[in-house]
Amino acid sequence: MAMLPTEAFDVEIEQKPDYAPIPAGDYPVVIKEAELKDTAKGGMRVAIRYEIEAGALAGRLVFDSLNIINTGPKKATVEQIGRRQLHDLLGAIGKPGSQDTNDMLGGRLKVRIKLTNNVDFPNEVGKYMPLNNAPARQTFTPPAAPQPEPAAAAPAAAVDMDVDPLEVAAAQPKAPWSRAA
């Protein structure tokens, strides 16, 4: 066994700040890192690091993990959630359908941060929104049903002076709103 020299213990230990959890709310962020990583059970996730851009918490980091390939018993559900989150994130930064994590770098968006009961990871990203408050994902709106065209106006009939206008009006069908119940 080798003995360590006494100089090995002569070091200044840097005190790291103890960061309190980020309060729940919506924050403008920029994506600083995005990379594919293996999960512990053989799946794959997108690991993302955001930096808050404005306000009292500017510079604070937020971490996110989108599980896009899962090998567990709830494979379909977990993958669907992770892939939907990835779709929403890419839409929020204006790069829908991108297939490269490098395309995410520098992307700006607004994220909704939630608090969790996990002491080690007290914050969780719950929603991805564009900075300009437009909807994060495009929605399909079906076209309105075609409306019938109004009937062409009939040419004015010659006025018959022998006909009482009140009798003519009484013979016309009444409008639906004027009918008696």
Describe the protein's architecture and organization.
The chain has a domain at 28-129. The chain has 181 residues and is of the alpha+beta class. It is built from two helices and five strands, in the order βββαββα. Residues 135-141 have low confidence and may be disordered. Strands 3-2-1-4-5 form a five-stranded antiparallel beta sheet, with helices on one face. It is elongated and about 130 Å long. A hairpin with a 7-residue loop joins strand 4 and strand 5.
Map the helices and strands.
Elements: E1 25-38, E2 44-52, E3 61-69, H1 75-92, E4 108-115, E5 123-129, H2 165-171
Antiparallel strand pairs: 1-2, 1-4, 2-3, 4-5
Which terms summarize this structure?
26% strand, 5 strands, alpha+beta, 2 helices, 181 residues
Continuous helix count: 2
Mind summarizing the main beta sheet? Answer: 5 strands, antiparallel
User: Which residues sit in consecutive blocks of at least 5 with pLDDT less than 50?
Assistant: 135-141
* Beta-strand percentage range: 25-35%
User: Biggest sheet: strands side by side, in what order?
Assistant: 3-2-1-4-5
- What is the overall shape? elongated
Q: What portion of residues is helical?
A: 10-25%
H/E element order: EEEHEEH
- How far apart are the first and last residues' alpha carbons, in Å? 105 Å
